[in-house]
Amino acid sequence: MPERAVPDETTALRAEVVNWMRAHLVGDFAPLRHRGHAGDGDALPELRKRWERELASGGWTCVGWPREHGGRGLSITEQVAFQEEYARAGGPGRMGHIGEGLIGPTLIAYGTESQKARFLPRILGGEDFWCQGYSEPGAGSDLAALRTRATRDPATGDWLVSGQKIWTSLAHVSDWIFALARCEEGSVGRKGLIFLMLPLRQPGVTIHPIRQMGGGEEFNSVFFDNARASAEDVVGEPGEGWSIAMALLGFERGVSTLGQQMVFAEELQLIIDIARENGAAHAPVIRQRIARAWIGLRALRFSALRVLGADGSAPLGREALGYKYQWSNWHRDLGRLAMDVLGGDANIISDDPRRARLQQLFLFSRADTIYGGTNEIQLNIIAEQGLGMPREPRGSLT
């Protein structure tokens, strides 16, 4: 289902991205095409780090950052164009996403001048890679229930961190982690939290991989046993951790989801190709489900563009509340459709990379409606923040 290109103000930028990718995603980097996305996130990590440095050499990292911090200062519309052409060219999942999209913008907004000078250039250059330490056992969807603690070392002023984070994507191949911890004795809920940045390669940090049912290990448990965060590596003031953490999430406007949708489109096209080859396309119900999937994907794109708005200068509106619920459920249903199109072949391990990709799609998309806020949490958010319905009782922790 090739899209007809409509010339607009991003045409020149799109052509520049296409030409750069065509010239650079070759040779040693050719194996990275279409690799490293959700469900394949731990693929070829060292080569993907080299790819980040290749991107940096062309000025294609941190394209939305202000020019004074090394970015291109692209508008939201231009960032969308970049993400779409990057994904259309088969660009691999970005190892630098957390640094570029989350901690980098947070430091630009809230970091000290020293923090900006130390961290931003190394994110920009693809030299340091970051992971996010929010979820804990018993504090995933209910983040305010976290129990990891940070205590002040009176000798140095540094913070000593003890506790456990879980579902930490790519921690095993990252250099730094930003984490929320409880720094005030007796505090509960959103109060008494601190936002810290810690190097992962230090005594007191242990990382255990979590094997997924698809065979990958991109998630981890991270254990802290008096791990040290420098006094200089606190963002905001102690006690302001919750507001910094929520501001960080607000910086992720979802521009990259437009690139993600290009991956979805490739998956749908693969399902259609196989349905034609194995005869599944002759089944009326399969044809109807494929048509609904195509309509749903178009609706996702228009929803994402509406959420992002024209220039990104305004806060996200209520229309953003349903987007995660929308795309995650669509993608989970696409995985089911893939299995039904494959039929009995879906149950057989094969060297056919197309079948393996659809099997991974089915297995990993089970998690889409859980990570980043479960379906139940998303529906609560829509009901309470979007429709003004009474809040669900949350006890004393909120």
Class from secondary-structure proportions: alpha+beta
Oligomeric assembly? single chain
Report the end-to-end length measured between terminal Cα atoms: 48 Å
User: Can you count the beta strands?
Assistant: 8
How would you characterize this protein structure?
There is one protein chain. This protein has 398 residues and is α+β, with helices and mostly antiparallel strands. It is 43% helix and 12% strand. It contains eleven helices and eight strands. A four-stranded mixed beta sheet has the order 1-4-5-8. Strands 2-3-7-6 form a four-stranded antiparallel beta sheet, with no helix packed on it. It is globular, with a radius of gyration of 22 Å.
Short structural description:
This protein has 398 residues and is an alpha+beta fold.
Tags for this entry?
alpha+beta, 4-stranded antiparallel β-sheet, globular, 398 residues
SSE topology sketch:
Blueprint: H1 11-24, H2 45-57, H3 76-88, H4 97-110, H5 113-124, E1 130-133, E2 149-152, E3 159-165, E4 176-182, E5 193-199, E6 205-210, E7 219-229, E8 234-235, H6 241-251, H7 256-278, H8 284-308, H9 323-342, H10 353-365, H11 375-386
Parallel strand pairs: 1-4
Antiparallel strand pairs: 2-3, 3-7, 4-5, 5-8, 6-7
Helix pairs in contact: 1-3, 3-7, 4-5, 4-6, 7-8, 7-9, 8-9, 9-10
